[in-house]
Amino acid sequence: MRKLLLSSLALVFLLTSCGSKSRSKGELVGVKGKKWYPEKPYGMELIPRGSFIMGKAEEDQAKVLNAPTRTVTVRSFYMDDTEITNSEYRQFVEWVKDSVARTKLAILAEELGLSPEDDGTIGEYAFASADTTKLSVWEKYKLDNFIGGDGYEAYALNKDIDLIWDTNDYPDEYYAEIMDSLYLSEEETYNGQRSLDVKQLKYKYNWMDIEAAARSKSGKRSDFIKKEELNIYPDTTVWIRDFEYSYNEPMHNDYFWHDAYSDYPVVGVNWQQAKAFCHWRTKFKNDDQKSRGKQFVNQFRLPTEAEWEYAARGGIEGGTYPWGGPYVISDTGCFMANFKPQRGDYAADAALYTVEAKSYEPNDYNLYNMAGNVSEWTNSSYDPGAYEYVSTMNPNAGSGQNKRKVIRGGSWKDVAYFLQVSTRDYEYQDSARSYIGFRTVQDYMGEEDSTKGNNGL
């Protein structure tokens, strides 16, 4: 009994004295981890915090009565300097296509009992976890104890070997079978070209409804975790469906995938797909951060309606447009944005449809096309009376029940009224249009202070 007591006391002593020999010298200095040096997100501009008068300061010509003026304050954030382009969204599509192909190949290799050591076969694309000798203790534990939907969710894909898309170089018939399954059937092929079956390009992710969880007085954490799975390929048919009795087939055929339109804003993306893109962009960045041993960045997301309007104003108090106003023509007689001027002369502003995302002059926050070109999704739900009840600090009328989402900025097919920074409009979240795109934001968490060695918020 005495030995047991002494052992217990020794254990308590070890627990209370273990670790480094206290560099804090007994002072309360906090838990110190790795130093964090924030970096400016690529392709984004810092929008400084501030207050502004949100809503219609000028005459409400449309008499919609849905934007009474109100002074609100928003925190600092980063915003994309342009709308998300076709090229940028294609990176998302290519990543999903790559993942779908690798998953199919790995599952078949698993079923055939092949491993990465089986050179020259589909086995080279087997799950990375197929070779358990290279797994850490934690990875083995997850593999043995994971309970997933399809049984493969805990398996890591092997991304060390490139996919082969040239049919002449396929390693074996199993590989050919999988790659063939990614394309439309022969019956759906014309002009001798087989197209990718874009319905297979689905992105699956989870997110947590933090606001609902915070307001709930009961329920488990898992009750507020939402699972999403959706097709992420843009709806190219919008170019035809949006306009009856109009010849827009060339835009349907070429706009998204052709290099000629790489730097043009992506359209045909609904609100849910835009949200999925934001999740993927966060994951894509943090996967790289993890591989380099760096701290994760906070999430990319859609801007709130208030953030969008504040950024669009560019610091100009009471401006009608991002450049101030009140006119849409410059001193030199040039139009300031891409829209439908002069009672329907689409080409009067030197553009018939969209233009490149970095066109016209940016506003004072260095943001391009905050008016015209394409309308932009926001994270806010549309309610005509929202300004009456939302908070004056970081206002946002977000509601999962309200499927109408605010779009801002006007587009290439709109008249000047919709280009005004205070004009509100909406579209249903599952609708895609040829005139709606989006840009993302990221919360500002400080910058490195080279003079003091700390971060200022």
TrEMBL record:
SUPFAM superfamilies: C-type lectin-like. GO terms for molecular function: formylglycine-generating oxidase activity. The keyword Lipoprotein applies. Keywords: Lipoprotein. Residues 44-441 form the Sulfatase-modifying factor enzyme-like domain. It comes from the Bacteria. InterPro entries: CTDL_fold, Glid_motil-assoc_lipo_GldK, Sulfatase_Mod_Factor_Kinase, SUMF_dom, SUMF_sf. This is Gliding motility lipoprotein GldK. Pfam families: FGE-sulfatase. The keyword Lipoprotein applies.
